[in-house]
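User: Can you help me understand a structure? I only have the sequence.
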Amino acid sequence: MYRKIDLALFLILTTALVYGQQQGRIQTSVPSPGELKAGETITFQAIVLNEGKDAWGAGVYSGSAEIYDSQKALITTTESLYGRPPVNTGESALFFIPFRVPPEFGGKYFYKIKIKYREEVIATSDYYSFIVIPVDRPPTIQFMNLDLSAVKGEEISLKVRVVDDRGVNRVGVTYQLPGMKEKKTQEMKLISGTKQDGVWIFKTAAFTETGRFVFTIEATDTKNQTSRVESQTAVVTPE
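Assistant: Let's start by predicting it. Here is the structure, written out as tokens:
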């Protein structure tokens, strides 16, 4: 019994000693490019020096990158890339770690490089920074009430939520009431929120005829980027 305990303890200490001999130092890291648009791919280049007593064999050492926001709060970690060429003591390994920047990113971010040997961390870099240019997108339009219907003599209120990073200049509705020969365009009214994220409304007059009420909604932002919701239909029934 005592021999088993001693042997287990010996194996634990020996393993710790072996891993303790594996040391690495991240000499430098460069983001390429240092500034890019959201949705693009950045590559973190890192040079790592083997300062341990043994060579790093192929497939037993790896590198990954941790991504942080502007306040250095961890967002995500890339997949680990395993090195293939053996790295002798005193030699360096070069890592190219890709990261596809999410489309919603924008502003300043940080990253750290981590190097592992047999899944044990042996080196961690300082923080390095990179800049993400936000992608300018057209407004998004979301219906707040799509189940539309009315009877003759009633009104219909169209309500949409419009979101845009810069703000919208105009939200309009093009419509054709039952009995109308031509379509008509009218601006919707902002009733809550802001021009960056707000709820807009358009109220019809009381329907004097039955039939189909057809409409299209369009939003334009301050850079003249336009989004459009194609024709929708509401049914007006008899009293």
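Now, to help you interpret it: The domain at 24-133 is CATH 2.60.40.10 (Immunoglobulin-like). The mean pLDDT is 88. Let me know which part you'd like to focus on.
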